[in-house]
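Hypothesis: this fold can be encoded by more than one sequence.
Test: take the structure tokens below, design a sequence, compare later.
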């Protein structure tokens, strides 16, 4: 028998959101989103938030909980997610957590990573270098001192590149070696973990289709509206894939077509990083999905893993 807590993981555009919704309807569950960008209000199209109709039928948590001008941390996510889980239990519902932000998933399963504190001088120096030398140079430096972390961190992710280099300078050790406390931990056995996997060409096809749909749905206008707000976008929000590229386009530095191709490229890179992270997760029931497999068959396969123990 399995627990009342179901966790669905997979790379971006893998279909995990649809599966989560369908499972939640059948299992009388509420959904916790594990996504570092869906937390932001009014960032809807580029983050592929569930449609409003779905959110009227199923209660979702950790969506629209922060302003785009705010920074949002792993600790803030974990606090919110744990509070949501407590609420769901009081309503005697099951929990379906779904997402692809690996760092948030790790925190939910194993708790917060207790790395060294921050050093404002070191961080300021690294951030200044990112401005003058470019992120690519800092990412190359990270590849030299911590190749495992560099493999997981996107060359466009300024915050995590700076943090990894900061930790190395403060602790004298790679952040990846410190994070082995996660790898050594056993997955919290409260969760039934389901992973969705597709062949790489199929994943890329789905990513391209999603980007096309986002543009047609009005992503450019959404970004324009966000940039027009009184409070500027936080660094975190500005770096979100889909938003960063459109911001560059609106600034006149790229054409729309170039921005669209960059979104596709950076989303494929994100999927590659997610696959690398997910290899470190234990006790995942991976569903290998064939091209054209009907959604109802995927749901049936998942349901066999989620028998209630009540």
């Amino acid at each position: 028998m399995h627990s009342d807590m179901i966790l669905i993981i997979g790379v971006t555009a893998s279909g995990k959101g649809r599966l989560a919704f369908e499972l939640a309807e059948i299992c009388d569950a509420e959904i916790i989103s594990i996504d570092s960008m869906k937390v932001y209000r009014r960032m809807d199209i580029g983050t592929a938030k569930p449609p409003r109709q779905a959110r009227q039928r199923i209660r979702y948590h950790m969506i629209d909980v922060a302003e785009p001008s705010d920074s949002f941390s792993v600790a803030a996510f974990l606090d919110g997610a744990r509070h949501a889980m407590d609420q769901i239990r009081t309503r005697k519902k099951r929990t379906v957590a779904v997402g692809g932000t690996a760092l948030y998933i790790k925190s939910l399963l194993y708790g917060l990573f207790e790395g060294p504190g921050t050093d404002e001088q070191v961080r300021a120096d690294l951030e200044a270098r990112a401005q003058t030398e470019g992120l690519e140079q800092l990412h190359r430096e990270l590849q030299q001192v911590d190749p495992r972390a560099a493999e997981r961190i996107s060359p466009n992710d300024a915050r995590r590149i700076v943090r990894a280099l900061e930790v190395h300078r403060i602790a004298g050790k790679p952040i990846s070696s410190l994070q082995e406390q996660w790898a050594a931990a056993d997955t919290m056995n409260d969760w039934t973990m389901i992973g969705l996997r597709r062949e790489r060409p199929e994943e890329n096809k789905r990513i391209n289709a999603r980007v096309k749909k986002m543009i047609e749905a009005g992503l450019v206008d959404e970004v324009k509206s966000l940039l027009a707000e009184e409070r500027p976008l936080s660094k975190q929000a500005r770096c979100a894939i889909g938003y960063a590229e459109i911001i560059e386009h609106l600034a006149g530095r790229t054409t729309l077509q170039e921005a669209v191709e960059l979104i596709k490229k950076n989303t494929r890179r994100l999927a590659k990083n997610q696959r690398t992270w997910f290899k470190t997760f234990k006790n995942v029931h991976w569903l290998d999905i064939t091209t054209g497999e009907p959604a109802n068959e995927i749901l049936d396969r998942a349901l066999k893993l989620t028998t209630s123990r009540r």
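Strands lie at 5-10, 29-34, 60-61, 94-99, 191-197, 284-288. The two ends are 9 Å apart (CA to CA).
Hypothesis status: open.
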